[in-house]
Amino acid sequence: MPPMQTPSVPFNQQARPINRGPVATMAPMGFGDAIATCFSKYIQFSGRARRAEYWYWSLFVFLLNFGAAFILTFALGKSSADAVYGLLCLVLLLPGFGVFIRRLHDTDHSGWWCLISATGIGAIVLFVWLCQEGTKATNRFGPRTT
Known about the structure:
By secondary structure, the protein is mainly α. Helices cover 53% and strands 0% of the residues.
């Protein structure tokens, strides 16, 4: 049996990167940009939403709900605070649902998959999809959002 041959590569040669053409880079979306985008697409359920847009919106809603509940309860009392807090939830419901559906579209899933959360295990599946990076190319819901 002949000894095993390994190709000889000098140590002073470095691997050259493969030229794959120009890569489109997307500008990062900040907290304020995400909130402005969600309010500007108030009831738009078509298109796609990036991860940053969805998670910044979720953070905004969480902080606003926590702050509003705390401040309104001390400022107005429990009964009046409940009414104002209910109005706040109604105002945030449609843009939140819209960004949720657009986020599912970005991962190439239909918005109807939101109904899977009614089964307990489906919420875990949705959470995984929401954390995934969206499809890089154009999918059936449109081009990649910038």
